[in-house]
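hey m, so remember when u said the tokens were messed up on ur end? i reran from scratch. heres the input so u can diff it against urs
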Amino acid sequence: MKFTAPAWQSAVAELVAAEDRGDLCKALARAVGTVVHDDGTCLVAYRSQARPEVIHHTMTQRVAAHYIDRYLAGPYLLDPLYELALNAKRPGMFRFRDRSPDRFNVSAYYREYRLRTHLVDEADAVTPVADGLTLALVIGRRSSRFTPRELARLKGVGPVIHAAMGRIGRCLDPRVQADELHQRMLDCFEGFGGELLTAREREVAVLLLKGHSAKSVARELQISPATVTVHRKHLYAKLQVTSQAALFAYFLDAMTHLP
């Protein structure tokens, strides 16, 4: 049993003994590694008024450069984990693919950003620590998917993981300065398409970018799939794009050329 193994007990002892944020983060990553094999972890602070902040990671330099730098340039706004973290009311352990839109794996965001991380599976521990602040521990796998037994083990140690993340969260300064770049990106995102699109077309465009199918968009907006198809046709024509990949490129270009 993993939970009676000396490695796990030593990891828990290290978590208990850790006093500062750096030691806590390292101890948490090592503890998770005794429970399941991972190809890198990333602890991210999600705030409602600022861009995500990477607190700690165990990725290689090359992977981190893509995952972090490109992610923070704007694609995080399309990340299902971003939305999940901001809306979290209680701690939870989730499998990323179970919380993603139905067409996420064929979305332009997935192909142009997510796929390049080479992750084939991901488990996420989400811990709200204060109003407007949630920590998410991303546990990534590039070699194989998590088995049901591995996921059960992660959920089994969930209370330990969430307690450690809570301690880390309390080490963060709650007085975060207003992030003007985040606000400009958020305004650009919420006003995607500018004056070219109607409010409904903008809603459809954003949901398509997030990886929703026409049927899923219809459910989210409580309209018919046929109406979604009409809106998609119109917004593509107005933005002069012919595919979701081109729509994603339009989105990235808008993020890059913020006023």
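this time it looks ok to me. Residues 180-256 form a domain with the Arc Repressor Mutant, subunit A fold (CATH 1.10.10.10). if urs says something different then somethings off w ur setup not the seq
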